Automatic annotation (TrEMBL):
Broad class of where this protein is predominantly found: membrane
CDD domains tied to this protein: SNAP
UniProt topology in membrane: Peripheral membrane protein
Keyword Transport: yes
ATP-binding recorded as keyword: no
Protein family (similarity comment): Belongs to the SNAP family.
InterPro entries the UniProt entry points to: NSF_attach, TPR-like_helical_dom_sf
Name this protein carries in UniProt: Alpha-soluble NSF attachment protein
SUPFAM superfamilies tied to this protein: TPR-like
A single MF term (Gene Ontology): soluble NSF attachment protein activity
Subcellular location: Membrane
Primary role: Required for vesicular transport between the endoplasmic reticulum and the Golgi apparatus.
Lineage: Eukaryota, Metazoa, Ecdysozoa, Arthropoda, Chelicerata
Length: 182
C-alpha cells in the first residue's frame, strides 16, 4: 500500500507541474491537497502533509475558505510538532480573515482561542494578552486543580476535541513541572 501511495504521489506531482505551467493554480492546489491527505492517512508523515497543505494554500487566494482550511491543517500539525509560533500565526491570521466575513465571523472565536492556548505553551506572559482571564488566574496561582476546573467549565459550554485536550494537558504539565514559569 505504501508503494502504491508513493507512486500516486509521483503521478500527482507531475500533474501539479503540468497544471502550474498552464496557469491552472486551483487544480494544482487540489492536487496538493490530495497529496497532503495521502501523507496524513496512509504514510503518517505530517511534516510532508503540512508542506503540501501550505503549497495548496499558496496557490489559492488568501481569503479563500479552502485556503484557510488548508492553513488550519498546517496549524494543527505545527502545534502537534511543537512549532507553536507558526501555529499561533496561522490561527491569528485565519481568525482575522474570518472576522472580515459575515458567514465566518463566528468561527474567529475558536481560532483565537487556539492561538491563546498555544501562546500559553510558549510563554505565560504571551498568554496574558490572548487567553481568558479565568485560565490565567489559575496559571498564575499555580493552581492545577483550579486550572482543570476552569477547563472543565469551558468544556461544558463548548466541547473540547482531542487537539484542545492535548494542548491543555501540556499546559497543565508545565504548571506542575515548572511552577516558576507562571
Amino acid at each position: 500500500m505504501i508503494i502504491i501511495s508513493i507512486e500516486a504521489i509521483k503521478c500527482i506531482t507531475k500533474a501539479i507541474e503540468y497544471y502550474t505551467d498552464m496557469g491552472r493554480f486551483t487544480v494544482a492546489a487540489k492536487h496538493h491537497m490530495t497529496i497532503a491527505e495521502i501523507y496524513e492517512t496512509e504514510l503518517a508523515d505530517i511534516e510532508k502533509a503540512m508542506q503540501h497543505y501550505e503549497q495548496a494554500a499558496d496557490f489559492l487566494e488568501e481569503k479563500n475558505q479552502i485556503a484557510n482550511k488548508c492553513m488550519l491543517s498546517v496549524a494543527k500539525y505545527a502545534a502537534q510538532l511543537e512549532q507553536y509560533e507558526k501555529a499561533i500565526g496561522i490561527y491569528e491570521q485565519v481568525g482575522e480573515a474570518s472576522l472580515a466575513s459575515p458567514l465566518m465571523k463566528y468561527s474567529a472565536k475558536e481560532y483565537y482561542f487556539c492561538a491563546a492556548l498555544l501562546h500559553t505553551c510558549v510563554d505565560v506572559l504571551n498568554a496574558q494578552h490572548a487567553i481568558k482571564k479565568t485560565l490565567l488566574e489559575k496559571l498564575e496561582e499555580q493552581d492545577v486543580d483550579g486550572f482543570t476546573d476552569a477547563v472543565k467549565e469551558y468544556d461544558s459550554i463548548s466541547r473540547l476535541d482531542s487537539w484542545y485536550t492535548n494542548i491543555l494537558l501540556r499546559i497543565k504539565k508545565t504548571i506542575s513541572e515548572n511552577p516558576d514559569l507562571c
